[in-house]
Amino acid sequence: MSAYFAFARSSFHSQLAYRNEVWANFFGKLVQVFARVAIWQAAYAGVGAIVVDGVSLQQMVTYALLGGAVMGATRPERIIGEIGRSLKTGDVAVWLLKPLSYPLYLFANECGSFAYRLMTQVIPTVAFTALFYGMLPPASLFDGLMFIAFWTLSFTLLFLMSALFGLVAFWLMTSFSLDWILGALLQLFSGLLIPFWFFPEPLATIARHLPFAWVVYYPNAVYLGRLSTADVWLHLGLGLGWAALFLAGVLWLWRCASGRITVQGG
């Protein structure tokens, strides 16, 4: 495990080396969050109400801030791009000679990047915008603690989804457009842009049962107290089930991809 910890630490330090990029990413994240909040302020002003379908404007502002935090700490395109570059350069074949797991290396690498983005982008952005707009606290201590659990699950699921899409590149021989496809699915079905309680039926019901919902919607819904205690535990279990399914898919695809490398590479 010390080797994977070293990979995570190296990923963290390598990104800190570019100080100007740290500031650029921070201001870029601020612009995204301000735009997201402005959209909901305009939408509520357009209907002339501060509560729509039982959801207040302040809850939607908090949802927008949290959505940026949850999604902002993980970059699916970076994971898919890393796999694509390794495949293009042939570096991925070296992992067959090492007593290490390539999927675990990717996970450790992303953990380091996650820590970097959390410290330099997510926390400063949320803190600054919360002071500017105001941000609701968790609905209860239980909801706050479970939000952390759901956020951890969100990170794990998003990594596994990205790795799964990235490994498909072994059959396409390129990762081009794979990150775009996953990004489009996340934008629509994760609840990042629009919470599911504003979705029309039956699309809302379908979206709540897709794995993308555990990336943004359920962590935020738990934070705001939109789920009962029983539903929180139920959806945490369902999310863990999705994570186990994606993990099995990643391991199976990597095993199949390793076979292709061995056959094609001799």
Automatic annotation (TrEMBL):
One family name in Pfam for this protein: ABC2_membrane_6
Segments crossing the lipid bilayer: 114-136, 148-173, 180-199, 232-254
Keywords: Membrane, Transmembrane, Transmembrane helix
Protein name, entry field: ABC transporter permease
